[in-house]
Amino acid sequence: MLKFFSKYKFFAVVFSIISIIIITVIYHIMKPQETLRIYQPADVDTELVDSTLQYVKKYHTIANFSLTNQNGETITQANYNNKIYVADFFFTTCQTICPIMTDHMVKIQEALIDDDEVLLLSHTVTPEIDSVAQLKKYAVEKGVRDAKWNLVTGDKKEIYDLARKSYLAAKDVPYQENDLVHTENFVLIDKKKRIRGFYDGTDPEAIEKLLHDIQILKAED
After folding, report:
1. N or C: which end of the chain has fewer CB within 10 A?
2. What's the DSSP call for residue 162?
3. Is 84 within 8 Å of 90 (Cβ atoms)?
4. Is the distance from CB of 151 to CB of 135 less than 8 angstroms?
5. Is the confidence at residue 95, as pLDDT, over 70?
6. pLDDT beyond 50 at 27
7. Domain count of the chain?
8. Separation CA 2–CA 204 (nearest Å)
9. Rounded-to-integer distance, Cα 215 and Cα 221, Å
């Protein structure tokens, strides 16, 4: 009996290896691919959606924009063509949630520093304070990499309309000059300018999920 097993031991090992490979391949074929939801205004809390958009169920994308970054350069949708990006809203003099959010954006930046498919975009909600020079000072202090991350200022109403009508990231109220958007939302945008996720920019676990979801988006291509 021992001679019998000894004789066929090699074949048994080979058969076992082949079986494991086949089972692994079948598992990966059968395993559903992870996908991310495409968010439409109708999917989001109505408090965060402009009344004209609340019943929109398809085709929502980020509107065109023209803003100015920390280097005085004009930034438009063209800078984000064929890119996945993470957007948020902050201001440099904020002493509450913004420093945490910025630290988390730095973490995302460093995690994806060599990934040319992914960029970052932070909009100031106090453009009357956050001039180009102020944004540049803040960028240097925080370690912003210019090629990866734009901090943008510009027309206040345009920025607030983007927050409320495009990114669906801030409570919808009638625009006023003394208005202040204060939102912790990070918004994940795909290469077709569609919203694919919302994340609490103050929560470390949400940032890990965001990084994971970026890889899911990349796998869609």
Report:
1. N
2. I
3. no
4. yes
5. yes
6. no
7. 2
8. 58
9. 11
3-state SS, residue 186? strand
Instruction: Tell me how far apart the alpha carbons of residues 44 and 171 are, in angstroms, rounded to a whole number.
Output: 11
What pLDDT digit, counting tens, does each position of 161-220 carry? 999 999 999 876 767 666 778 899 999 999 999 999 999 999 999 999 999 999 999 998
Residue that the structure tokens 């991310």 belong to:
36
| Sheet containing 84-90, strands listed edge to edge, beginning at the edge strand earlier in sequence | 149-152, 118-124, 84-90, 185-189, 195-200
Same domain as 56, residue 108: yes
Full-model pTM: 0.83
Same domain assignment for residues 26 and 110: no
Q: Between vectors from CA 80 to CA 199 and to CA 177, what angle results, nearest 5°?
A: 65
Euclidean distance between the first and the last CA atom of the chain, given in angstroms as a whole number: 56
Cα 188 → chain centroid: 3
Q: Count other Cβ atoms within 10 Å, centred on residue 64.
A: 11
Instruction: Give yes or no for a contact between 197 and 213, defined as CB atoms under 8 angstroms apart.
Output: yes
Task: Tell me the pLDDT tens digit for each residue of 110-154.
Answer: 999 999 999 999 999 999 999 999 999 999 999 999 999 999 999
- Contact between 65 and 158 under an 8 Å Cβ cutoff? The reply is yes
What domain range is 26 assigned to?
1-31
